[in-house]
Amino acid sequence: MNYKKVLIFGAHPDDEITMAGTIFKMANSGTKVVVITMTDGCEGYPVLEMKEKIVEIRKKEAKECDKILGISKRIFLDIPDMGLVNNKEILKKCIKIIREEKPDAIFTHGPEDNHRDHINTHFISVEARWHAGEPVSAEFGSPWYTPHLYYYKGITKGLPSVIIDVTDVAEKKYEALITQTSQFTVFRKNKEDFLSEIELIKKTRPKRTEQFWIADKVTIFDFLPRSI
Asked: Which of 24, 60, 155, 181 could link 110 by a cystine bridge, Cβ 3.0 to 4.6 Å?
């Protein structure tokens, strides 16, 4: 994961927390981490009283998460929850972002999921990555081919994977989850639960890993330092 810049596609404002330890480790080693949040979180209200302000709340929570994990930039596409579709307009927005950001690697959802926003994020991001490297849509700049593509969730079998040891920073996932106050009902956890987990991790430091599935065929040379 020795990249200069990575781009992470997340369907909702908290999806990237799945790979929180790796994000923190990359950011701490100098990698610029950019997150694209596809939807606005408008359906993420656990009680009716939050309906009118949930979008604002979730953006604020996302920004707090960015501080914890060292995310350099977050791009909100502001598509309504449950309304993300794979159409030309959204595809071109993602092509434009990829060409502007020029990442070394893209992390996104895999194809196996029950949530329509997760599945459509998968298909849109994978196709946008391909189109961004093709000589099309010249108004968005020169083609940019992102050499590495990973799935960080939504995969159960069939692809090779990379396992990242995040034992030394495992608490960062729970520190990030604490910022997502509006989603505690969805998580079926509360702040005290997460604080207890953080305390346990710091005391016992159990081995923790994060798994990334390699979406494209690569060779060992792709992982060697650029100077070689």
From this structure: 155
Q: How far apart are CA 127 and CA 94, in angstroms?
A: 9
How far apart CA 85 and CA 143 sit, in angstroms, is 24
pLDDT tens digits for range 41-74: 999 999 999 999 999 999 999 999 999 999 999 9
Q: Which amino acid makes up residue 214?
A: I
Q: Give the chain's largest Cα–Cα span.
A: 58
Query: What burial class does residue 29 get, using C-beta atoms within 10 Å of its C-beta: 0-12 exposed, 13-18 middle, 19+ buried?
Result: exposed
Distance CA 43, CA 95 (A): 26
Using DSSP bridges, classify how beta strands 105-109 and 148-153 pair: parallel, antiparallel or unpaired: parallel
First to last CA, the chain: 17
Quick: pLDDT tens for 8-48: 999 999 999 999 999 999 999 999 999 999 999 999 999 99
Q: Which residues contact 30 (CB under 8 A, 6 or more apart)?
A: 4
The tens digit of pLDDT for each residue in 177-224 reads 999 999 999 999 999 999 999 999 999 999 999 999 999 765 444 444
Apex CA 59: angle with CA 110 and CA 111, to 5°? 10
